[in-house]
Design a protein that fits this description.
Blueprint: E1 7-11, H1 18-29, E2 32-35, H2 37-50, H3 57-66, E3 69-72, E4 83-86, E5 89-90, H4 98-108, H5 111-125, E6 130-134, H6 137-141, E7 147-152, H7 155-168, H8 175-191, E8 204-207, H9 213-228
Parallel strand pairs: 1-6, 1-7, 2-6, 7-8
Antiparallel strand pairs: 3-4, 4-5
Helix pairs in contact: 1-9, 2-3, 2-4, 3-5, 4-8, 7-8
The protein binds 2'-deoxycytidine-5'-monophosphate.
2'-deoxycytidine-5'-monophosphate (DC) binds next to helix 2, helix 4 and helix 8.
């Protein structure tokens, strides 16, 4: 009997292009696209707004267990792939602000925050027909996912891609600042004690430095189709 690959886990470092690739893959398969990073970003934004910072682990963990974060189909046609709603507030773009970028690695390293988020993510993953993206999906959130990919690129290439995106949006940024911020986030994400960024043993490693987005999606689709055959 041919099998259906229903749960797909995609992990990788910041700005590796995993979200765009996952979104395209989900569309091609007709699956739900679920970017778990938005949940950590929404908690970070809530902490910055309501606690004035993210330093108090106890307060941030308490906040993470009480806020309601929802990811819904897009309600506005402004380039968004989904709406992110924090307690009834649309925060889709606010969670991408630089102050959130700077603090989100600290928040996502708090074990209590991860516990709340992982629980919610598993509930969605278990329904199947999902492409879930993050740092620990193949290793912790969905260790039994039927296909796992680790999408990677060098820090320099990732910084250049992020820089080009921000300049195209009209932001004033410096390449070196972005590179340093990416290296810092890699360091925090991969050395934290709980669920650090690392590749699952059974994941397919895709190094994208010289690949186009379409090529990355093609590699994943080919793998899935072969697995289902
Ligand atoms: O993918 P992103 O840049 O939106 O992720 C934001 C932060 O959340 C990043 O510092 C890593 C963290 N994260 C995580 O620890 N686990 C996940 N499953 C997803 C994101």
């Amino acid at each position: 009997m041919p099998m259906t690959v229903s749960t797909i886990a995609i992990d990788g470092p910041a700005a590796s292009g995993k979200s765009t690739a996952a979104e395209t893959l989900a569309r091609r398969l007709g699956y739900l696209y679920f970017d778990t990073g938005v949940m950590y970003r929404a908690v970070t934004l809530a902490a910055l707004r309501r606690l004035g910072g993210v330093e108090s682990e106890e307060d941030v963990v308490q906040l993470a267990s009480s806020v309601v974060i929802d990811v819904r189909p897009p309600s506005i046609d402004d380039g968004r792939a989904y709406d992110v709603v924090l307690d009834s507030d649309d925060v889709t773009w606010q969670i991408r602000a630089e102050d959130v970028n700077r603090s989100v690695s600290v928040v996502s390293a708090y074990p209590g925050v991860r516990e709340s988020m992982t629980r919610q993510q598993r509930r969605i993953g278990e329904r199947g027909h999902v492409v879930m993206v993050g740092r620990d999906i193949g290793t912790v959130v969905m260790p039994d996912a039927e296909a796992k990919f680790y999408i990677d690129a060098s820090a320099e290439v990732r910084a250049q891609r992020r820089y080009d995106e921000m300049i195209a949006r009209g932001d004033e940024v410096k390449y070196l600042d972005i590179l340093i911020s990416i290296i810092n986030r890699d360091q925090i994400d991969s050395t934290r004690e709980v669920a650090p960024l690392c590749m699952a043993e059974d994941a397919i490693h895709i190094m994208t430095d010289t690949m186009t987005r379409e090529e990355v999606v093609d590699v994943m689709l080919t793998y899935i189709t072969e697995k289902e055959a």
